[in-house]
DNA sequence: AATTATTTGTCCGTATGTATG
DNA sequence: CCATACATACGGACAAATAAT
């Protein structure tokens, strides 16, 4: 169970991100919020501290707690990212995220090819074999696909990159799970479908990494993500 | 003036990031820290809430406040990033950051070429002209170089990408300012030096964006950053 | 399985600090 | 310089969770 201050952070943070409170606006003072939500001032204060660490608000004595401009937000926070992806008025965000992904995932593949250790390569090999065995099986494919990309990511041996891509992928997964039931076109919307053709695209990446060909690894990974981006653009525009 | 809880967040956060407290370790209980730092329990509690939002710790009833593994940290927080860059035992981080940059800045250049508005292009043009006028002037070059990259970044019209690269660049600037006085080799270490040759590299990017050639823009930007990476590797290895 | 001990979580009365008008 | 309005800080009390016994 989450503490009350955490619940309040979720409540207020979501409202800010979804634009219910706009940048520059003054939030209710601690005492008023405390009454409104039937919690102590302590809880409200801790919530404001959390929101302030997320870059969503800044508290000032006398003038109160103000909503900060979007440029101050901590975009790479899993909650904030999830809220942005859920926002139906903010379809741009998923495209923006995909664009960033176009930058990062190919780099991860290139680094896996150039810096991956022997153990990393063994892991990637095993993950690819699982993927081969999952053709035709939707559920198994999704997991194997996730693990395959994860094994490449780990082989980049770059903690920052690993953390960043993980958040991105987690947020996209949550968003997909919430959005999928609403669309007819599940097959096309998912990361990629469990077909023989999709497997071959993955094989290209796999073989490039194994032969330490970073340029090809980068390029083939880019092609995979470009396909997703094209699909998303079709859906949203 | 910073509030006491913020001071405490800085104090404890830095210690965690620099490895003085290691993941899994239990921090002192609220009451003890309160005595140690001569602050109220309220202040300590708010500090813990802030650190918890940064992904550095998690508080549990009865078992105390524990330092979380690196995979949970909010890497894209300006304080955390600055601490990591300052850490002399963590030379890898600046290389890792440069690798991420290799992913992001070229994408920003490509998007500027493909999606930049007329106003964006005017801004980039002006920024490049300033750069041309700064050849030979170290101080002016640094500013003009920053503004040139910033104008490209803005033209990507992707808030997420803009926010992310800004944090990265801010952290690198802080790090450079703190590290530079220690090295002899200032010229080579800086982003790039104010020479005619460096200007020509920038001109390639500029012209590619102007002619909406996203492939070339991406590639030339990548070359610029690859050079920095090579220099860093020389310095640190 | 029940009890206890320990630590965070919550509440609130009070006091101080600080920027604004 | 004073009054005001807000955040900030203090500390005593109790509630809730959970590890240890």
Walk me through the structure:
The first copy, chain A, is built from 11 helices and 2 strands. Chain A has 237 residues and is mainly alpha-helical. Chain A has 2 domains: 4-72, Arc Repressor Mutant, subunit A (Orthogonal Bundle); 88-236, GntR ligand-binding domain-like (Four Helix Bundle (Hemerythrin (Met), subunit A), Up-down Bundle). The first copy, chain A, has a two-stranded antiparallel sheet. In chain A, a hairpin with a 3-residue loop joins strand 1 and strand 2. The longest helix of chain A has 24 residues, at 92-115. Chain A is elongated, with a radius of gyration of 21 Å. Residues 184-189 of chain A have low confidence and may be disordered. Chain A binds a DNA duplex (21 and 21 nucleotides) through residues 1, 3-5, 29-31, 39-43, 45-46, 48, 59-65.
Q: Which strand order does the major sheet of chain A show?
A: 1-2
Helix content of chain A: 55-70%
Helix and strand succession of chain A? HHHEEHHHHHHHH
For the termini of chain A, the CA-CA separation is 40 Å
CATH superfamily caption of the largest domain in chain A:
GntR ligand-binding domain-like
Number of strands of chain A: 2
CA-based gyration radius of chain A: 21 Å
The helix-and-strand class of chain A reads mainly alpha
CATH topology category name of the largest domain in chain A: Four Helix Bundle (Hemerythrin (Met), subunit A)
Keywords:
2 domains, two-stranded antiparallel ribbon, Arc Repressor Mutant, subunit A, 237 residues, 11 helices, elongated, homodimer, DNA-binding, mainly alpha, Four Helix Bundle (Hemerythrin (Met), subunit A)
């Amino acid at each position: 169970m989450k503490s009350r201050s955490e619940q309040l952070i979720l409540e207020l943070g979501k409202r800010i991100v979804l634009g219910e409170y706009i940048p520059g606006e003054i939030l209710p003072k601690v005492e008023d919020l405390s009454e409104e939500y039937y919690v102590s001032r302590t809880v409200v204060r801790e919530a404001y501290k959390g929101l302030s660490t997320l870059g969503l608000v800044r508290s000032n004595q006398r003038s109160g707690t103000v909503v900060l401009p979007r440029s101050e937000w901590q975009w790479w926070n899993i909650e904030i990212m999830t809220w942005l992806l859920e926002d139906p008025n903010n379809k741009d965000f998923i495209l923006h995220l995909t664009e960033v992904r176009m930058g990062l995932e190919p780099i991860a593949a290139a680094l896996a090819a150039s810096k991956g250790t022997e153990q990393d390569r063994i892991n990637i090999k095993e993950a690819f074999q699982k993927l081969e065995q999952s053709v035709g099986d939707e559920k198994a494919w999704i997991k194997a696909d996730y693990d395959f990309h994860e094994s490449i990511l780990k082989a980049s041996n770059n903690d920052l990159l690993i953390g960043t891509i993980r958040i991105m992928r987690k947020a996209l997964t949550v968003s997909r799970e919430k959005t999928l039931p609403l669309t007819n076109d599940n097959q096309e919307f998912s990361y990629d479908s469990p077909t023989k053709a999709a497997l071959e695209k993955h094989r290209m990446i796999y073989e490039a990494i194994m032969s330490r060909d970073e340029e090809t690894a980068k390029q083939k990974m880019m092609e995979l993500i470009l396909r997703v981006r094209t699909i998303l653009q079709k859906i949203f525009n």
